[in-house]
Each structure stands twice: as C-alpha cells, then as structure tokens.
Fold these 4 entries.
Entry 1:
Amino acid sequence: YNRRPHQNIELDSSTTHKSQSKSITKQLNTTFAIMVFKAHRSSIHADADAADATISTIVDHTNKKNDMSGNIDSQAADADATISTIVNHTDKKNDVGDNIDSIKAYFSTMDGKPDSFERFEEQFHKLIHPEVVVKSYQHDDMKYDDLIHLVKTHFIPKGCVSEVLEVIDNGDGTLTSVVNNHLPGEDGDVTYQRAYFNDEGMVVKVITTSQFGDLVDRVEALPGRKEYTRIVDA
C-alpha cells in the first residue's frame, strides 16, 4: 500500500492571537461585570445607609417632638393644677367671707328692737342646721329647738342684746364669734362661740366657753321685761 508521508501541521500565528484576544476580552468582560456589580452593590449599601440615617433622623425628630409634647402636656397639667388650686383657694376665701357675713347678720338681729325676733328667726333658719348641737362646759347640750326657745322666750323678751365684737377665722373652716351679751342691769358678758359649718354654709356644731353656760342660766332666771321695769321704777 501507499503510505502517506507524515505531514507537519503548523498553527497559524494569527489564529493563536485571535484565541488569546478572545480569552483576554472574556476576562476583561468578567472583571468589568464584577466591578460593576460591586459598585452597584456598594451603591445599594450606601443608599441603605443613607436611608437608615434618614429614618434615624426622623425617629429622633419624632421623639423630640413627643418629648416636647410631653413637656407641654406636663406644663399644661401643672398650670391647670395651679389654676385649680387658686380657684379652690378663692372659693374657700369666698365661703369664709360669706360665713362671716352670715354670723354677723345672725347676731345683729338680737338688737332689742321690736321686730328683733322676726329678723332673728329668718336668719336662724338660714344659718343654723336642724341637727345643730351647742356644747358648753356648764350647761347641757342645746339643740335646734332649745336655741329658738331661749331667744324667743327669754333673751329677746327680757331685753337682752348681743353685740359682735369680732369674728375670727380659725383657718380650718371654723369661725369663732366674740360676742358681748348685754343683760339688763349688767355691763356685758363676753362669750366665745366656735361654729362648725357644713358644705352648704350652715352651722352644724357650736362649742362655747364656760361663760356661755352660765349666761344661759342667768338669762333664763331673769324676770320678764314688764316685771323688771316695775322693779327698776320702784
């Protein structure tokens, strides 16, 4: 048979260069793609960081606004409490003033004038509570009807007169009346009467000094006005 002679195949140099060029281009493309991806990823992270910073700023701003709002609410609450205290204090002062006026009006009716009892009875019902108790160290407790009986039957008909010297605010809601009671034939008899009030401004309890109990006994023992006049004329 015929053997073909051995042939040496030589690669064209241009083919080699083309292959190398394609490889380099592929590597460059890959590298560029990686760089673009990394740059894009870095941009995403930067945007995320910026977004986080923005959110943090908004949250801080909101918290500060909430804190300011809380401070404003707190200050407003303090202001309301202060105003309420002032109003309550003013109301209490007004109540005390009203009670002092009522006490003075009450005692002023016992002035010895002909219409004294009518005026007394009107003020009595306004000021004295039906469950009132008057306590004295030298006399039994007196109730509502006892007081009316004393004034109607003895004090006014027998010519006694009450003069208010002073009404003292004790600072605890009570008032102490300093009263000079003029009995016929006497210069005067000062008693101290401490009155306790309910929320409606009515007297529910009175505590007196020992002079009051002695005064009640002496008033009840006085002769009537006519009988007393005859004795004086004689």
Entry 2:
Amino acid sequence: IIWAAIEQQYDLMIEKKGGVKLRQLDETREALGKKLRSEKNPSISLDELFQVVQWKFGKGKARHALWKHLKSIQQKDLDDFSKESFQKANSGDVKGAIEILAKLSGVGPATASAILSIYRPDFFSFMDDEVIEALNEDKKRGYTVNIYLEVNSKCQEIARTLGWSCNRVGRALWTASQILATGGEDLTISAKGNGSELSSSSTTRKHKRPPREENDATIGSDVTRIRKK
C-alpha cells in the first residue's frame, strides 16, 4: 500500500539529503522524543534545542542568521516555556503549544513544530516546506501560526483515516517529495474531503528500517502534484 511503501524510504531520503550527519541528527531527535515522552514534567535543554535546529536546517533551508537569536535564549526561559508548551500539547491545544514556544527568540512555528512533533506526534506534524506546499490552500510557503494550523489540521484528518500519527503523515509527504526531487518515480498526492492518497505508476523501493507505526489505507481522488525541488 502506497503510504507505507513511501514512508519506508524516509531513512534513505534523509541520508540522500544530508548524509550520515543528518541521519545521526534524525536519530538523536527521535531519541529526544522518547526521552521527553518518558518524563513526568518534561522540558528541553539548550543543547537539545540546538540539536533540533541543526536537524531542521539540514532537512530544509538553513537560516544561519537565527543562531544569534537562539543563542540568546536563557535556560530558565527555555525550561519554563517548554514545560508550559508541553502541558498545552497534552491537553490537545495545538495553537497554544506552538505559540508558547514561539515566544522564544529565534523560535518560530516551524522550529516549535520540530520539537512538538516528537513529543506528541499524534497531535503535531513538522512544518516541512514540502508539507506546506502539498497541503496549504494557495500552495505557497509560509511560516505563520495560521498556516501551520491549516496544514497540521489536514495532516490530522489524513492521520485519522490512515490510523497513523499526524507526524507520520508529514514524514510520508516529505519523503514522497524527496523521491521525486532525487530523480525517483513521479509521485502525487490525491486529496479529498477528510483524507489523502499517495499514488504512483510503479511500486516504490523499500528501505531497511520498517515503518515506525502500524496500519495503512488509501483514500481520495482529486490529484495535486508535489512540486519537484
């Protein structure tokens, strides 16, 4: 089934995008998510924030001018804001959780989503450019809270249909775009109503790591192409 087949290539696309370094950052970020979910009242450290930002810059467009703002953050503020954000996330308040983290200097909705999507992958997807382009109504990139809420809501709808987490849907959409960008088969997103379907004219090649979650489904019609990067 196409969604799972696409997602199985995530690790391969990560390594093609940023080599061993990005793969290691991706694994470190996944481990951070497990750590946060295991703690009763979690918060993140500056080093952990910086690792997530390095992952984000490696996976997408690096915005090095943000480092001076990020490095001005005080650990106490990060403790307070991240704890409050995680509490809002646990209550299902997606907007509130994003807005709290975005109060930190240099942290916008995209960086906030990079953190929250590993803490509560059921509620949050990562704000990848490719996911924005696939699901945003006007197909343009934007990094506002409102655009994130629109895109994340659509990921949630798809996730409910597939029986996946919201974050897993975003991962599959990013992977599909990267396959096309690296000369792979021409993949499309079909979206209608409460879900989406990834379709392809041929089968996708599987990668060694199995998908992180269970279940799969295909739905939808109306085809919207992922733009080639």
Entry 3:
Amino acid sequence: AAARAAEIEDAGNTLELEGGKGIVPLPTGALEVWGSWPESDDSAVIVLDDLNAERSRIQGIIDALASKGCRVLAAKLPGTTQKNLEEDITVLLALFDWLGLAKPVIYGRDWGAIRAIRLKICHPKRVGRLVLEEFASKVGPQEYKQMESKDVFKVNGMGSFMWIWDGAYPTTADLKAGKNMDGFKGSPKPILLWPFHNKGKHDPQKRNKWMAKSADAFAKALKTTP
C-alpha cells in the first residue's frame, strides 16, 4: 500500500492557484477548483458541497481548514442532478490522480456527502476519513416554517441523506440502510456532523425525537455516531 501511495504521489502535478482559484486539465475535461494549496506535505482535504451550491457557501470551511495548516481544495463538479453521481465520481478520481493524492480526507456537505460516500464505496483504497455534514436543515425558526410547508422530511435532516435509504423512508422498524450502501465498510470511522434542532432552534437535549431518530439511523448505516 505504501509503495502504491508513493507511486501515485510521484505521478502528481503541481497546482498553482491565482487568487485562490485555478483550472485543472483532466482527461475528463477542464475542472474549476478553488481553495488553498501550498506546496507542502500537509494533510490534504477535498471539500464537496451540495448540487449547484454557490461557491461562497463552503468558503468558511476552506478558510478554517487552511488556518489549521491543511491543503484544502473544492471543485465545481460537472454533475447538476443526482443522476450525475457516477460521472462526478469519475472526475474526482481523475482529480486525485492529477494532484497525486493517494488517500485524502473528504469533507462532504449535503449531496457532497453522498458523493463522498459513493466515492468511498467505489474506491475505498483511495479515500481517507470521511467528514459528512447535513447542512440543508440547519436553519432558523422562520426558515424552518417555510421549509416545513414544502418538505417536512428535508427540514428534519432527510434531504440528500435519504440516498442512504435508496431515496425512500424505510418501512422496517430497524431503519436498515438501502442497497445504495452495499459495499460500504466504514473504515476509518466517518465523522457525522448533524444539526440537532427543534423547529429551527438549537436542540442539544434532542427533544425533536424525529430528527434524533433519523440522525441515529443514518449514523448506524455509516457505522458511526452523530
């Protein structure tokens, strides 16, 4: 494994960003990237956000990780719908090869978390630890009311993460993961970040039992804890 990792790293290219932005010429097509990527051997983190998310939404994560000495990179993946998941996985693997990343940490938010999980399933030896965040339901009371009237599942954390259940709430009491999770090993143990709230208000006591139950069920499928 060490020899293979060294081979991947030696075959990598140098990434130069201007103003924190750059273009990576991949076999799959030019890929727009941004972040902080100094020439160093510091830990590498790839940040994956939701479908069609504004770049500014993830900038705080990039800045925070960069301040801790990490190399951090986000990419504008070609997928614009959930149906493009496999295409995005192909592009991510090509990006890893181009950069010479043998096993980076992946920080995935909302559908970015699903991209990270699928990448781990397809290429377990090329992905390090997963940090998975449910962010879509992290809203205040007013926005909660608006979201609840449109999608009561999403506002309680069951938006993108429903992919783990094959897109439908389980009919069995054990809330077992769906076929999409076949092959997921859960090693190293993923970190699951979950916005516990009760109608848009911070809920550290987990009084919103529905959200707490969903968090526990997703965590079980991911072989971790929320």
Entry 4:
Amino acid sequence: GKSYHRAKATLSHMSTWYAEIGPRCTDTTVRPNWGLGVRASPRYYTVEECVSVQHEVLGWPDGKCPCAAELAAECSGHRSSCHDHLYVENLWMRPKNSSTTYLQYCPKRVLELQDTVDLYLYLNPAARPASVSLLHFDKLELMRRASRELTDIDTLFFVNHFDRSRSCNGTCCGAAERRVTTMTRELIALHSWRPYECPGHPMLQWRSTGNCTCKHWPQRDYPC
C-alpha cells in the first residue's frame, strides 16, 4: 500500500458528507463518473465514529430477477432491482441524515476522491491526459482492482459522483431539459462485502441497537 500520513477526521473533512445532493451540472460535455469542477487532490483520514447511511439497491442474484411484467409497478424506479454487478462487488452507500435512516456504517480508513475517474487516475498515476474525456475504463474492473490493491483503505468517498441514472442521454442535462443533473455523495466499502448474507458487512449496524437483526432479510434489498 501507499505510505502517507492519515489524520483523524475533522468537521472540515466531513462537512460535505451529509449534503446528500451535490452541485448541479448543465454542461452537456460532462459524462457520468467524471464528477464536476476542478480535480481535487486525494485526501486520507480516519473516521472513528459510525455514520448514518442508506444502501444503494443491491437487487436479486443474477438470473433470479422477479421483475416480470406483473411486477413492473413494484420495480419501477429501481434501476438495479434485478441485478447490478457493481453492487455485488462492493457495498455502495449514501450518507443520510440520521432522522431518515437507522442504518449506520463505520468508515474507518477513508480515501476521499471526487468521482470514479479520479480513482482511475489514482491507480494509474502516469495517466494524465489533457482532458478526462480521453480516458476509457471499465468501471466494474476498476472497482475490482481497487478492492485488490487498496488494502490499507477501508472506504472510498466520492464527493461529487455523477451517476448515470441522473444523466440525459449520457451527459449532464442541458439547460433546455426538464430534468436537473445533480452530483451525489457515495461511500463504497472496498472489502468484506457479503451481498447475499446477513449481516452483509461487519461495519454495518443499527443506530438504536448496535447489532443488525436481519429481521427483514431477504424480503428487502438491505442486508444489514
């Protein structure tokens, strides 16, 4: 792993964590996973306390999707209700206000980056193109590589993540569109994710009791 000084998280480190929605984007040259604005340097810190989070939707095991026509209404709006390999590989979460979720995650050793393309640049320091538009990578393979190589990092934090589900035809929505593209905050546990077990991760807990009861698993897509 890389050798660096890691500070304990302060309010300045975590000031953006609970702003669930990041800046807006109307630049139709910006594509998903690029983030927004000037590329910031990586930051490393340790978060000792647990933070309130919400799972990204995991979905059902590959080949066992229940979203047939008769269940279309139930599954509408959940782009990964059937299956998403990214969510099987790693635990993806969004920081949430504690009043809206009982689920907590303990981040421990954090690497803070702007978005997925910054993870690519971090793992490929010699790749410094004039524009991120010149970079091409497979997101799933990138996450698998990060999980293998970043053994001294527990959690990735994407400060301004541009999710494809928020795009208009593969870019930020333009000023003329009825939709608005906003960046999101994403926490990704790099290791120890067990997507079809409960508890799904050793660093997940319930805010009220501490222990995960798994009371609603597997009926729900949230294996605490």
